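Could you join me in thinking about how sequence relates to backbone shape in a protein? To get us started, please write out a protein record for me. Would you write everything just below, so we can both look at the same thing?
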Amino acid sequence: MILDYLPLFLFALVFILILFGYPVAFTLGGLSVIAGLILYDIDFFYLLSLRIFGTMHNFVLVAVPLFVFMGIMLEKSGLAESLLETMSHLFGRLKGGLAISVVIVGGMLAASTGIVGATVITMGLISLPTMLKKGYSPELATGTIASSGTLGQIIPPSVVLVLLGSVLNVSVGDLFTAALVPGILLVGMYIGYILVIAHLNPASAPAITAEESATFWSTGSTKKVIHAFVLPFTLILLVLGSIFLGIASPTEAAAVGALGAIALTASQKKLNFEILKEVMRDTTFLTCMVFMILIGATSFSLVFRAMGGDKILADAITQAGLSPNLFLLTVLLVVFIAGFFIDFIEIIFIIVPVAAPIFSAMGIDLIWIGILIALNLQTSFLTPPFGFSLFYLKGVAPPEIRTEQLYRGIIPFVIIQVVLLGLVILFPEIVSFLL
């Protein structure tokens, strides 16, 4: 009887050790190998080498380092800073215009990085001091930045969606297409909220002065707009357009994006050996982290399934009489809570592979599931008291920003996220509209 529940014990032990701070990749891989050696023998792990070689031959995963390189290059080159400055003057005469520009820039950075921590920290360092200086309320400023920084979870080309496509065994291009409408809706809902707040309480979101606007537009403004907005937007459009039109695979489009980011940096006269070395080092670090976790997760998945873990879960759901909808809500709740404590990469490689076969057996569309999980992860990154985005922003915020201000500011954006998640659950056509 005890042996029947060994897979669940292994799963719980992995989760507990990760919460205690042990490295995710080595916890997953190490415990799985120990369990495999005890229960089976060394020959069993011949299957593991086959699985790892299968992962190495997965052409789609090459997109991960390329998209990461593209995003880090755009950030390190100073394009993010000039983009925010330009957008703030484009919308600056509108009440709440600076916050709206932060949301749009956050969306554009999301479409180039997909890495939450990098985007939130960049936006926090660049825009938070400016927003506070212009008279924005700390709550609206911090809430806007933290929520905009997590748009990389859902707006393509997102590293999250690339990894979800690999784990769910669905087309990454289809996931990108399916995520486009929810991503645009979310940006629109954020902007709508900011406009309402600016109308109800103009003092919390003032417009920039006419003098500041005049100074910007009188000094080579057209060239600034082209360099800071039009060129990065064109690059993102080319990357996404080539995927959506079927001209290029996500991996090929990612390569175009990486090369385009180098060209944009060179056009800004910012490309030098130091920048290139720093970008390559950060890209290598993030890519190695992702793939080490993937190897650990592959070991865990092999042992877990060999022990009959997936069958135990499927039988438990059948015996409990859980409907597909109830099971979906249970998984979303588990992913949401896990997002408080561990990074999205670990969640994708630990929880999703366990649930995916059950969703598939229930006949649920895995593209829809992928978008729901991405949206859900994004919500968990924002939710107090443990949301990762809040920790990232607090780390770079000025000393006068209190934690309770950050929490109060993010609550409306969390509500917006939950509303959108509910709409996507109730109306799956939002995801399938462009498919």
Observations:
- The chain is about 75% helix and 0% strand.
- The two ends are 46 Å apart (CA to CA).
